[in-house]
Structures are given as structure tokens and as C-alpha cells.
Design a protein that fits this description.
- The chain has a domain of 36 residues.
- Helices cover 0% and strands 20% of the residues.
- The protein has no helices and 3 strands.
- A hairpin with a 5-residue loop joins β1 and β2.
Length: 75
């Protein structure tokens, strides 16, 4: 059961919803179902352990620090 991010096209609220099969969620604020599914940002697992940061996505300037040689994000 994936968790999706949505934005309501009627009231503008953004929220996450656990969706099963063909279920169609509705907005928790206004109750309407005119929703746009948004791109979710996945979390990176830090195999290096505590004290080191997760492998970040590139910033607006296209720069990032890689978490090591086993990082498969291609930067």
C-alpha cells in the first residue's frame, strides 16, 4: 500500500494518503475528490551509520556531496 502525495484542485490543500488498490481519496479539508497526485521525494538510506548525512539531491546550483562509492544516484 503506497503513500501518495496529493494537492486538492478545489481548496489547494496538500496532503499524504495511504491508497489501496483502486481507491480514490478525497481531500481531508473540503471532502472533494478533484486531486492532483504529486511527485513524492524518496528517502535515501544512510549505510555509513550515525553522524554522517544522507546522500543529498543536488541543490539549485547542481552541487551535492555524495555519500560514498556505493551511492547509486549518479553524482
Amino acid at each position: 500500500m503506497p503513500i501518495y502525495e496529493y494537492a486538492c484542485l478545489d481548496c489547494g490543500r496538500e496532503f499524504e494518503e495511504l491508497v489501496r488498490g483502486d481507491e480514490r481519496p478525497s481531500c481531508p479539508s473540503c471532502g472533494k475528490d478533484r486531486l492532483e497526485r504529486r511527485m513524492s521525494v524518496s528517502a535515501a538510506h544512510n549505510a555509513a551509520g550515525e553522524g554522517q548525512s544522507d546522500c543529498p539531491a543536488p541543490d539549485a546550483r547542481g552541487q551535492s556531496r555524495c555519500c560514498g562509492p556505493n551511492c547509486h544516484l549518479g553524482h
